[in-house]
Design a protein that fits this description.
The complex is a heterotrimer of chains A (260), B (265) and C (276).
Chain A (H helix, E strand, L loop, with lengths): L2 E11 L8 E9 L3 E6 L5 H9 L7 E8 L11 E4 L3 H4 L6 H13 L3 H14 L5 H5 L8 H13 L5 E5 L7 H18 L2 E6 L2 H5 L4 E6 L2 E7 H6 L4 H9 L15
Parallel strand pairs in A: 3-7, 3-8, 5-6, 6-7
Antiparallel strand pairs in A: 1-2, 1-4, 8-9
Chain B lengths: L3 E8 L11 E8 L4 E5 L6 H8 L7 E6 L2 E2 L5 H7 L3 E4 L13 H11 L8 H11 L16 H13 L5 E5 L7 H18 L2 E6 L2 H7 L2 E6 L2 E7 H6 L4 H8 L17
Parallel strand pairs in B: 3-8, 3-9, 6-7, 7-8
Antiparallel strand pairs in B: 1-2, 1-4, 4-5, 9-10
Chain C lengths: L1 H8 L1 H23 L32 H37 L1 H16 L2 H12 L3 H12 L1 H15 L2 H8 L4 H37 L10 H9 L7 H33 L2
The chains are: A alpha/beta (260), B alpha/beta (265), C mainly alpha (276).
């Protein structure tokens, strides 16, 4: 079991806040695993994601450390891809889809413009965008939300990074598209043997494909372990609450049904 | 008397280039005290339908009868008066309130506009509303920005019931809330319905939420209503492709390792 | 107010506020600091500055006290600047609100009027207006306002168009609020902040325009203004530059103060929005 990253005693406090966004986190990330970071609002999960990616804003107070197996933090774009929650905000509205996906490949793989363009087309095919050659010249606003997120994934993976972080990547999408995007991420990550860090508030969503889960609440790591173990026999009260709050189509309804 | 009868409602958007979600010849009914869950993927037209119903958007064709009156024919001061009978709870818990508002002002507005109680009684009525949705009366003086997401949605519900409506339209009302809070809000809505006989038109893309609170479910796909029926029937025996896709899309809690995230029903 | 606290925390805001506060005090207490009519002949002509303690900044060609002129000139400059900016913003707000809220032909029509006023260089417009109607303080105020109202109108309209789509405006409609109340209580207060930030710049421009008009001899001849003082000193710039320099410095300090204040205000408003 290779440890890609060891997070030790990590605390992060934003400028102007007194309460820490992350409080003495101890967490390992295993190479090639699919790790789900699960928490509600205020849990610190997004802060952790951005901390791992080196995307925290200036002026934060940080203590503790992240020890990477490669010796240095992964470079965003080249070693690490990041998919944000809102594809409308994370894609540049004035650049075509092709340009945005090709940019990462040009910069990090040193491809020529033509090679990068061909590479971008292949990436769009891999994320199953309908009519990829037309999509290359389209602008983000011409695509649907689900398609935009596929483009964002293609752009994140363009330089073939070893790590993919998806920060609530499906939360802004409807259920049907969410299912498709999760399948896509699962497929891509398995194919390339990448490490996936999937941030979500939906424990059931994570349960379907994550190897390990880490439950966060109010900046603290509550519980972590293999998915099936944690969900089958949760140790902490908060984990039990999260599992109990989950509703699906087998959960009994709240209304009084006629004849029941 | 059927509370709400929508007949052949249509709306087209033409923005140069893309055809945005239209409503295409939709008909549905709602009885007093009943919840109709309106489900569909994004772009299915369900939110547009909700907005047309709330008179926020004009319809191109069709009719709506609400409380035995031609709802679309109302305008001006008449419409504003009758609006007391049909209220709405929005999805965006932050954007649904004037950033400068206080909790008290949010609840005072509908009470004042529709003269629900005399001016002197309003503070008491506000306290009663807060209490009914499970918030302490002391919240009245807080700025709306100092209140958490779940609490804001409770205030939105309090605002919606303030005018004693017979129908409330909920547009993805719990989608933006933490999972652990959703259940409480849904329970509150069901309680209020049993207590006051309010009907709900609950718009959502999440069938699991609708299963919890709906008596009947209507499925929309690309502007058309493709299936309607009792909740259990639609979920356990779906007829339309859209319904099947929505059912399949609900994540299940998986406790044994599997190959993929979604098991078939 | 929290806003003022934020404002003072920024260096620009603090300095700007300090400068403006000083100017306001000077304007208010000018008759106390320098009693009597500043345009009266007070002493010997062309006294150099820092020579006579009775006339710290010297006297001009007619023997008028330069310091008195500067102190009293503060009143005119600030009064005209503020009044013109207020008028411009008031007109701009009304037009912008109406256009943004009404939409359709009303919006189109009003925006073409705004276009027309924006095409004409505002100084030339003010010049023409004052030349035709005659120079007095109210006319100068109106002339400057005519050139300045178009920008706030556009900005207000843009704000209104954006706010109109928010859920809380839809909410207000849903609970049956009257459109007029929606415009005044829900939309206007939330549309104001960027317009207020713009207002500081309008004040600065108004002060400069007033000075320019006075310099050209189109200001009110019965009050002393920095512009007219600069114009007076122009003829003897080589021998007595201080006559033009001191009012010039006063102008610069005022405009810088206003700009710094507006910068600080913008930062304070932006900082407020980031707070949860």
């Amino acid at each position: 079991m290779n440890r890609l990253c060891e997070i030790r005693d990590l605390s992060v406090t934003y400028r102007g806040q007194t309460a820490p966004a992350l409080d003495r986190i101890e967490l390992d990330i295993v190479t090639g695993e699919r790790l789900a970071i699960i928490g509600e609002s205020g849990s610190g999960k997004s802060t952790l994601a951005r901390g791992i990616a080196g995307l925290l804003p200036p002026g934060i107070r940080l203590s503790g450390e992240m020890r990477w197996s490669s010796g240095q933090a992964p470079a965003p774009g080249r070693d690490l891809g990041f998919v944000f929650q809102d594809p409308s905000a994370s894609l540049n509205p004035v650049l075509t889809v092709g340009e945005q996906v090709a940019e990462g490949a040009r910069r990090h793989l040193g491809l020529s413009w033509k090679e990068a363009h061909a590479h971008a087309l292949r990436m769009l095919e891999r994320v199953h965008i309908p009519q990829p050659d037309k999509a290359m010249n389209a602008f983000p606003h011409q695509l649907s939300g689900g398609q935009r997120q596929r483009v964002a994934i293609a752009a994140a993976l363009a330089a073939k990074p070893g790590i993919l972080i998806a920060d609530e990547a499906t939360s802004a999408l409807d259920m049907v598209v969410q299912a498709q995007i999760v399948s896509l991420l699962d497929e891509l990550v398995r194919e390339a043997g990448m490490t996936l860090i999937f941030i979500t508030h939906d424990i059931a969503l994570a349960s379907g494909f994550a190897d390990r889960v880490a439950i966060f609440k109010d900046g603290r790591l509550v519980e972590t372990g293999p998915t099936s173990a944690v969900l089958a026999s949760p140790r902490e009260a908060y984990t039990k609450t999260l599992i109990a709050s989950h509703r699906d189509l087998t959960t009994p309804p709240l209304i009084r049904e006629a004849g029941l | 008397m059927t509370l709400l009868a929508i007949k052949n409602l249509s709306k087209r958007f033409s923005s140069g280039g893309r055809r945005v979600a239209a409503v295409d010849d939709v008909s549905l009914t709602l009885e007093p005290g009943e919840t109709l869950g309106l489900v569909g993927a994004s772009g299915s037209g369900k939110s547009t339908l909700a907005r047309i119903l709330m008179r926020l958007l004009p319809a191109d064709a069709g009719s709506i009868r609400f409380e035995d009156e031609d709802w679309l024919a109302l305008s001006g001061a008449d419409l504003r008066r009758r609006r007391a009978r049909m209220q709405m709870v929005f999805q965006d818990v932050l954007g649904a309130f004037n950033p400068r508002a206080t909790v008290a002002s949010v609840l005072d507005d509908p009470l004042r506009i529709h003269a629900i109680v005399p001016k002197a009684e309003r503070p008491k009525e506000i306290a009663a509303l807060l209490d009914r949705v499970g918030l302490p009366a002391s919240y009245a003086d807080r700025s709306i920005r100092e209140v958490s997401g779940g609490q804001r949605q409770r205030i939105a519900i309090a605002r919606a019931i303030a005018t004693k409506p017979s129908l409330i339209v909920l547009d993805e009302a719990v989608s933006a809330l933490d999972v652990s809070i959703r259940g409480k809000i849904l329970e509150l809505l069901v309680e209020l319905q049993e207590e006051r006989g309010i009907s709900y038109l609950f718009v959502s893309h999440d069938l699991a939420v609708l299963r919890a609170v709906s008596h009947r479910i209507a499925v929309m796909d690309a502007g058309r209503l493709t299936e309607t029926g009792p909740m259990r029937q639609v979920i356990e025996n779906p007829q339309s492709h859209a319904a099947m896709a929505l059912i399949h899309a609900v994540p299940r809690l998986v406790t044994e390792p599997t190959e993929g995230p979604y098991r078939d029903v | 107010m929290r806003l003022v606290r934020h404002l003072v925390r920024t260096p620009e805001g603090a300095i700007g506020l300090a400068i403006l506060a000083t100017l306001v005090l000077v304007a208010l207490f000018a008759p106390v600091l320098s009693p009597g009519d500043p345009l009266r002949i007070a002493g010997r002509a062309l006294l150099p500055p820092f020579a006579d303690p009775a006339f710290p900044l010297g006297t001009d060609r007619l023997g008028r006290d330069v310091l008195a002129g500067i102190l009293h000139g503060t009143r005119t400059s600030l009064a005209v600047g503020l009044a013109a900016a207020l008028a411009a913003i008031a007109i701009g707000l009304c037009v912008g609100l109406t256009a943004g809220f009404a939409g359709g032909l009303v919006d189109e029509g009003l925006m073409r009027v705004v276009d027309a006023f924006q095409i004409v260089p505002s100084f030339l417009l003010a010049l023409a207006f004052v030349s035709v109607i005659g120079a007095s303080v109210p006319v100068v105020v109106l002339a400057i306002a005519l050139g300045a109202w178009a920008d706030p109108a556009r900005l207000t309209r843009a704000q209104v168009l954006s706010i109109r789509e928010r859920d809380y405006v839809a909410s207000a409609r849903v609970i049956g609020m009257h459109p007029a109340e929606i415009a005044l209580r829900e939309i206007l207060p939330n549309a104001l902040p960027p317009v207020l930030a713009l207002s500081a710049i309008i004040v600065a421009a108004a002060i400069l325009t007033e000075a320019a008009l006075s310099f050209l001899g189109l200001g009110d001849p019965n009050v002393v203004t920095w512009g007219s003082m600069i114009a007076e000193g122009r003829n003897i710039l080589r021998s007595s530059p201080s006559l033009s320099i001191f009012p010039g410095i006063a102008l610069v300090v005022t405009v810088v103060g206003v700009y710094l204040f507006s910068e600080g205000l913008t930062k304070a408003l932006a900082g407020r929005r980031l707070e949860p």
